[in-house]
Amino acid sequence: MTTIRKAENKDLKKILELNEESVHFLSPLTMEKLEHLVSQSELLEVVEVDGEVEAFVLTVIEGKDYDSVNYLWFAAHYERFLYIDRVVVSVKMHEKRS
After folding, report:
1. How many CB atoms lie within 10 A of CB 69?
2. Number of domains within the chain
3. Residue 14: domain span
């Protein structure tokens, strides 16, 4: 069974693991950086497959304290925006769909 839901504190460790799995596409995160990013986020949702978090999405709106080069570009060019920072799917799910 697949479920999409708001992320909870209990999910942060798994979110870090998923981020690390695909870090060659993403910026690296520590728990401290992730907690700060979560505090700035507009949306953080996870996808559970059979009770395991296998994916997440994180977005940030304008006016937040986030130092991503890409986010800062949007902040410099748009008054209002929703920045999709990360969409991460576990490698296990990549392999499952192949």
Report:
1. 7
2. 1
3. 2-97
Best CA proximity match to 74, nearest among 61, 65, 86, 87: 61
Residue at 98: amino acid letter: S
Query: For residue 18, what is the domain's CATH number?
Result: 3.40.630.30
pLDDT at residue 96 greater than cutoff 80: no
pLDDT digits (tens, 9 = 90+) for 3-55: 999 999 999 999 999 999 999 988 899 999 999 999 999 999 999 999 999 99
Which token pair is 76?
Answer: 């410099």
The most distant pair of C-alpha atoms in the chain lies apart, rounded to whole Å, by: 42
- Cα separation of 6 and 96, whole Å? 24
The sheet carrying 52-61 orders its strands as: 2-6, 43-49, 52-61, 82-89
User: Which among 39, 34, 42 has a CA at the least distance from the CA of 62?
Assistant: 42
